[in-house]
Design brief:
Layout (H helix, E strand, L loop, with lengths): L1 H7 L18 E6 L2 E3 L7 H5 L2 E3 L3 E3 L4 E3 L27 H4 L2 E7 L11 H13 L4 E2 L2 H13 L3 E7 L9 E8 L9 E7 L3 E8 L5 E8 L9 H8 L4 H23 L7 E8 L1 H8 L21 E2 H4 L8 E4 L9 H10 L8 E5 L5 E5 L4 E4 L22 E7 L6 E5 L7 E2 L1 H13 L18 E4 L2 E7 L10 E4 H24 L9 E5 L8 H6 L11 E5 L1 H11 L1 H13 E3 L6 H9 L12 H13 L9
Helix pairs in contact: 6-7, 10-14, 10-15, 12-16, 14-15
């Protein structure tokens, strides 16, 4: 394939659909030589005549010269999470009681001609007498270094041990041995990692104090090979695709770990424990486990609960003997990100019926309380996380996070994170923009942009109609920041999938939405969603705003709780066992609900009385110069 040839030449051509030839965004121009096109989807006859071809669907048949247009770039910026100040150590955390990883000081008697005990036995004896450790296992790599460490520390050493989680009678595991006696109050590093389809988040944690000391996030490097899990599964099934995706996410994680450690003046190899959350596909690709059966009926994972592993096996560049614990999932499309989210949200202990939504690429939903839990998932796509949108970006400095549009002039006002010129629009900004454009009549309920609107901001663009949010003269890049018809379509599909998912789930178990006591919203940008705007586009149900609670990234927070407390870690396993999974693809009602929700806010306006009222008041307040509804 031409895409493979380009990669061998050191040129990375993005394949957002996973190389299936669906998106047309890997188009290149053949200026010399012969190629064979397997597909010309998204290419016009004129494009083909001019030599354009899809890199993922084109076979090279000899020497060729290829022009690669400027590649679509995803905003990449390492950033701290915007909710750092709200991460507090769980009440009552006690390092010596709750943590599975412990540090102990050992003072050994040096060998003599009278005492020629071998180094390993001498260490075991010290562990038994000074730390009450009767059984301990050690890897060959660590065993090879013990003699040198004991002598370098002049027989005073600090050992880091991991206590077994499931069976306390099992031997402990020696993770590291350091020469000298380390200050008992100095940090002992662990990390909580959320491998999201769109974004990877890493929290660096001092296990002694329980404090989160650094938080960083970055787009998942796998995006270049697919913006959703299905595209990535398809790409992974190709020759070498699975290993490439595994390496891409490892590169992302290791880069984030290095950045987080630099912030606290630590080294990655000082991190001795990692807790991993992520959806089932992400965990499979991270571990290099074939994920192809996840997308094939009857949709079975290779593993829902991976065993504990060492970092050297996995490829994370922390201490080679550090434990890497992938939290348990439930099914193909409800993974560890949701079980961790249920724990951190408190849904598993709720007295009344509660709805938990993870507003992200996969649109997972959980309904229940402390007595029962049911769950489902649907592919929403990455639009609300800033990917798949022309000017989309993460919620970092420079992102437009809120938009207001004047109903008479169509002129926008917006708020930028960090102030200054905007670089793009993040998820909360996209929701706000879509809502304002709908309420003011710039777009209709089907998502069509009103090109008859009397404003220079509404125009015909490269992808159909578009609305200019910020002129190039006022943007960071110098280019216009727009909302295009393609963006609107992606946003409509995303919100329709999420809305259809939780409504079908509620109908399936016979729980009317109006009886739900609380709606908990998870997701990396969830805390910054404007409820009114989210209801106006039909993303959230139309109910009293006091019933909504926005929690931010519940997945990484759940991983953080499990990292600190072995009881919380066991609780997540219990949650996974309790959850009943409902497969929406086997339910025809989901497609019907999805189709009905592909409009703003919905085909059935009776479900959204507050939106109907807002539209009515806007119509009554318009002047005669205002364009008619279309």
């Amino acid at each position: 394939m031409l895409s493979d040839a380009a990669q061998m030449a050191g040129l990375d051509i993005g394949q957002p659909c996973g190389g299936q030839g669906r998106c047309g965004r890997c188009a290149v121009q053949v200026t010399e030589g012969n190629v064979r096109r397997r597909s010309t989807l998204r290419l016009s006859p004129d494009d083909v005549e001019e030599g354009y071809a899809l890199a993922c669907q084109t076979v090279v048949e000899g020497d060729v010269v290829i022009y690669v247009p400027p590649q679509e770039k995803i905003e990449r910026q390492l950033t701290t999470d915007r909710v750092v100040a709200e991460i507090t150590v769980p009440a009552g955390y006690e390092y010596l009681q709750d943590q599975t990883v412990r540090r102990v000081h050992l003072r050994l008697n040096p060998p003599t001609m009278e005492d020629q005990t071998d180094d390993w036995s001498r260490l075991q004896t010290a562990l038994k007498l000074q730390a009450n450790v009767n059984k301990v296992n050690v890897s060959l790599a660590l065993l090879q270094s013990i003699g040198g460490v004991l002598r370098a520390g002049e027989w005073n050493v600090t050992a880091v041990l991991e206590y077994p989680l499931e069976d306390l009678e099992q031997p402990l595991r020696l993770i590291s041995l350091q020469p000298n006696l380390v200050d008992e109050y100095s940090p002992l590093w662990g990390c909580a990692i959320d491998i999201g389809t769109t974004t990877v988040s890493v929290w660096l944690v001092d296990l002694v104090s329980g404090q989160v000391r650094a938080q960083v996030a970055e787009y998942n490097g796998q995006i270049a090979r697919g913006e959703d899990v299905i595209s990535r599964i398809m790409y992974a099934s190709k020759n070498g695709g699975g290993e490439e995706l595994r390496q891409r996410v490892l590169d992302t994680i290791n880069e984030l770990l290095e950045t987080a450690c630099k912030r606290v003046k630590a080294k990655p190899d000082e991190v001795v424990k990692a807790m991993i959350a992520g959806n089932s596909t992400m965990i499979h690709l991270f571990l290099g486990i074939p994920a192809s059966n996840i997308r094939l009926s009857p949709f079975i994972t290779a593993v829902n609960h991976p065993p504990l592993m060492a970092a050297r096996e996995v490829g994370i560049k922390i201490h080679p003997e550090a434990s890497v614990d992938c939290l348990p999932g439930v099914a193909s499309y409800v993974g560890a990100d949701i079980t961790a989210g249920v724990l951190s949200s408190g849904l598993d202990n709720a007295e009344n019926v509660t709805l938990f939504l993870d507003v992200g690429t996969n649109g997972e939903t959980v309904l229940g309380n402390r007595d029962w839990l049911v769950t489902c998932a649907c592919s929403a796509g990455p639009a609300f996380e800033g990917a798949g949108v022309v000017n989309g970006m993460r919620a970092t400095t420079g992102a437009i996070e809120e938009v207001w549009i004047n109903s008479e002039t169509f002129e926008p006002t917006y708020r930028v994170i960090g102030g200054g010129k905007p670089k793009g629009i993040c998820g909360s900004g996209l929701i706000s923009l879509l809502s304002e454009a709908f309420i003011t009549g710039i777009i209709d309920k089907a998502g069509n942009i009103n090109l008859m609107a009397s404003s220079s901001r509404v125009r015909e663009g490269a992808h159909g109609g578009e609305y200019v949010v910020a002129w190039g003269a006022k943007s960071e890049s110098g280019e216009d920041i727009v909302l295009s018809r393609v963006d609107v379509d992606n946003l409509l599909r995303a919100k329709a999938a999420i809305y259809a998912g939780f409504t079908v789930l509620a109908d399936t178990v016979g729980v009317p939405l109006e009886t739900v006591d609380k709606v908990l919203i998870g997701g990396s940008f969830g805390k910054y969603i404007n409820v009114e705007k989210a209801v106006q586009i039909g993303l959230l149900p139309d109910m009293d705003w006091s019933r909504f609670e926005f929690l931010g990234n519940t997945s990484v927070k759940g991983a953080y709780y499990a990292l600190l407390d072995w009881k919380k870690r066991e609780r997540i396993t219990e949650i996974a066992k309790r959850m009943t999974y409902i497969e929406l693809s086997a339910d025809n009602s989901f497609y019907e609900a999805f189709t009905s929700a592909l409009f703003l806010p919905h085909t059935d306006m009776s479900k959204f009385p507050s939106v109907a009222e807002a539209l009515s008041s806007k119509v009554e307040g318009r002047t005669s110069e205002r364009p008619n509804d279309f």
